[in-house]
Design goal:
Distance between the termini: 65 Å
Strand order of the largest sheet: 1-2-3-4-5-7-6
Strand content: 15-25%
Number of helices: 13
Number of domains: 4
Radius of gyration: 25 Å
Number of strands: 19
Mean pLDDT: 93
Low-confidence stretches: 1-22
C-alpha cells in the first residue's frame, strides 16, 4: 500500500479570515453546510487525479466554510475503491492545518466528505450514523454543498473525523492505543502470514502480518493489538480483560440487523477503528457507512447475496466461522449471545418495528431534495432518488431500496425463534427513601425492582463516579435483601456507598432461560440515578 506524500504547492493569496458568522454546529443534521474551495489551477481535477494515483499528496488551495475563510489548506480525493479517475465528483479530504498547524473550524482541522457512491437515496450514511449513535460511539454526519472555483461540485455527506477530538469527547482522552482497520487489498500478504485475514483479528505470529491490515495511529500499541488477537482466539474466556465486549456486541448486532456488510461482518472485516480506553479495554468504532442497508452484499462466504438472502440473512451469521473470531468466539458464550440478540431486538424496536427509519429517511430526503436536484454531477437521476426507498436501483449494482430491504427483514427477524422469545420484564424500579417523620437518615441505597417472565439471574450494575466502570451485585428474591417476601418477583440489593460518595448511577440486567433484558434499555448512556440527599428529603 503506497503511503508516499507528494505535495504540490500553489501560490494563492486571500484574506485568512472573514468575520461572516459561521454555522452554530458544523454537523447539525437539520442544516445543509456550504463549502467553497478555490484552486489556482484550472485543471484541478487532473491534478487531484494524479495526486491520488501517486500516494496521498495534497493540492494547496483556499476554502470558505459557511462564510469563514482560510488560506493554505490541502485537498485530495479520498477513498480507495470509491475513487474513480475522471469522475465528476469524488469524495474529498480537506486538511485545514496543512500549513498553519493551529488552523481549524469549530475545533476540526480536517473535513471528510463522502460522495455517497452506490447510494441513490443519499441517506444511508447520515441515517446509519444517526442510528448507531444511540448505542455506541459513532461519528456525526450531515450534508454540505461543495463549490469549486465558482462551480457547484456537488452535494456531499459531511462525516465527523475519528480523531483526537472525537476520542476525547467519547472517552475523556486520546492517549490510548488507537488502531485503524485498513486491509491491504492490493498487495499479497507477507511471507509466513495467513492469507485473506484482512481486519478479522485472527491471531498471527509476526508483527509484519498486522502491518499488512492495520494502521497504528497512536505512538505505540502494536503489542496491545497482538495481545487482543491472542486472547480473542486462544483464550476467549478471558476476552473481557482486553475488550469491551458489550460495545462490541452492539456493533455486531448493528451490522447484522442493518445488513452493513462493508464492515467486520462482511468479506473484508473492514471499516472500523479500535481504541483502548483507560480501563485497558479495546472498543470498536464504526466508520464508512455509505454501503450499509445492503448496498454491499458479500459476507465472505460464496457470491454476493440476492435481495431475498439479504432480507433473511441469519442473525447468527458467522457464529461457526473461525475466520471471524470477533463473532464466533464471542457468540460461543451463551450469555454474550443472549446480550447480542437483546441488542438486535432493541435496535429493531427503536427504529424498525413501526417503520421509524423510513419516516426519518423521508425527512432527510426532503431536506436535501433541492440541493440534490441542482447537483448536475450527481450519480443518480431524480427518478432514482425518488424511488430509492422502495425499489432496487441499477441493473448491475442492484442497490436495494431501504424499505424494500428492511420491511421484509424486520418481519423475518420478528418471527425468528432467536428473537421472538420473551425476555424478562423489569418494572417498578425504586430506591428506599427516609420514612416520613423519621429522624433516622438513609445511609445505603436499597434498590428494588419487579422482574417477571421467569428470571434466573438478576444483576445490578452500579457506580459512584461517571468516569469509572460499573461494579456488579446480584439482586435476590429471597426475602433477605430488601426484596420483600421471598419468591414474590421483587428483587433487591443494598449498596453501601463510599464515605465521599452520595450519588449512584445504576442499571439492571435480567436473564431468563432464553433471553436477557437491560433496564434502562440504553443503559450505556442513560442510567437510573439517586442521591442520599434526595432520599433524605
Amino acid at each position: 500500500m503506497k503511503r508516499s506524500i507528494l505535495i504540490l504547492f500553489s501560490l494563492f493569496f486571500l484574506s485568512t479570515f472573514s468575520p461572516v458568522a459561521a454555522q452554530d454546529d458544523f454537523y447539525d443534521v437539520n442544516a445543509i453546510q456550504e463549502i467553497k474551495i478555490t484552486f489556482e489551477q484550472d485543471n484541478w481535477r487532473y491534478v487531484l487525479d494524479s495526486l491520488r494515483f501517486n500516494g496521498e499528496g495534497l493540492l494547496l488551495g483556499a476554502i470558505e466554510i459557511n462564510g469563514q475563510k482560510f488560506n493554505d489548506i490541502g485537498v485530495r480525493y479520498r477513498g480507495s475503491r470509491s475513487f474513480q479517475p475522471g469522475n465528476k465528483r469524488n469524495s474529498l479530504y480537506i486538511k485545514l492545518n496543512f500549513i498553519d498547524k493551529e488552523q481549524s473550524y469549530q475545533g476540526q482541522q480536517t473535513v471528510k466528505l463522502s460522495s455517497a457512491l452506490r447510494d441513490p437515496s443519499m441517506v444511508r450514511e447520515v441515517l446509519g450514523y444517526e442510528i448507531a449513535r444511540k448505542y455506541m460511539p459513532a461519528p456525526r454526519a450531515n450534508y454540505t454543498k461543495v463549490i469549486v472555483n465558482g462551480e457547484y461540485y456537488g452535494l456531499f455527506v459531511n462525516v465527523e473525523p475519528i480523531n483526537d477530538a472525537f476520542l476525547t469527547h467519547h472517552f475523556g482522552n486520546s492517549n490510548g492505543t488507537f488502531v485503524q482497520c485498513a486491509p491491504n487489498l492490493v498487495e499479497e500478504e507477507p511471507q509466513g502470514c495467513k492469507s485473506d485475514v484482512f481486519g478479522s483479528l485472527q491471531y498471527d505470529n509476526s508483527a509484519k502480518c498486522y502491518l499488512h491490515n492495520f494502521v497504528l495511529l497512536s505512538e505505540s500499541g502494536w503489542d496491545d493489538l497482538i495481545e487482543l488477537t491472542y486472547v480473542l482466539n486462544q483464550k476467549p474466556d478471558e476476552v473481557n480483560r482486553v475488550l469491551d465486549v458489550d460495545r462490541t456486541l452492539w456493533m455486531l448486532a448493528y451490522n447484522n440487523l442493518l445488513v452493513n456488510l462493508s464492515s467486520y461482518t462482511g468479506r473484508y472485516s473492514e471499516n472500523y477503528y479500535l481504541y483502548k480506553d483507560e480501563q485497558g479495554h479495546f472498543l470498536p468504532i464504526l466508520y464508512d457507512l455509505n454501503l450499509c442497508f445492503g448496498s454491499y452484499k458479500n459476507t465472505g462466504i460464496g457470491s454476493d447475496l440476492k435481495l431475498k438472502e439479504l432480507q433473511e440473512m441469519d442473525p447468527l451469521l458467522h457464529i461457526d466461522n473461525s475466520a471471524k473470531p470477533l463473532i464466533s468466539r464471542l457468540l460461543s458464550n451463551e450469555e454474550y449471545k443472549k446480550i447480542y440478540l437483546a441488542h438486535m431486538r432493541q435496535i429493531m424496536n427503536d427504529f424498525f418495528r413501526k417503520d421509524q427509519y423510513a419516516e426519518r429517511a423521508k425527512e432527510l430526503q426532503n431536506l436535501i431534495r433541492k440541493a440534490f436536484e441542482e447537483d448536475t454531477n450527481r450519480y443518480y437521476s431524480m427518478e432514482d432518488f425518488d424511488v430509492s426507498l422502495n425499489e432496487t436501483i441499477g441493473k448491475r449494482s442492484r442497490i436495494p431500496g431501504l424499505k424494500e430491504l428492511m420491511g421484509p427483514r424486520t418481519a423475518f427477524l420478528k418471527e425468528n425463534p432467536l428473537l421472538s422469545v420473551v425476555p424478562p420484564e423489569v418494572s417498578d424500579v425504586t430506591v428506599s427513601r427516609r420514612e416520613r417523620f423519621s429522624s433516622e437518615k438513609v445511609t445505603d441505597f436499597k434498590i428494588q425492582a419487579r422482574i417477571d417472565k421467569f428470571p434466573k439471574n438478576v444483576v445490578l450494575h452500579y457506580r459512584f463516579d461517571p468516569s469509572m466502570p460499573f461494579s456488579k451485585m446480584e439482586m435476590r428474591d429471597d426475602g433477605q435483601h430488601n426484596d420483600g417476601e421471598a419468591e414474590d418477583s421483587v428483587f433487591g440489593a443494598v449498596i453501601t456507598p463510599k464515605s465521599d460518595s452520595n450519588t449512584i448511577e445504576y442499571f439492571i440486567f435480567a436473564e431468563n432461560a432464553k433471553a436477557v433484558t437491560f433496564d434502562p434499555p440504553r443503559y450505556m448512556y442513560e442510567q437510573y440515578t439517586a442521591s442520599l440527599e434526595e432520599l433524605n428529603n
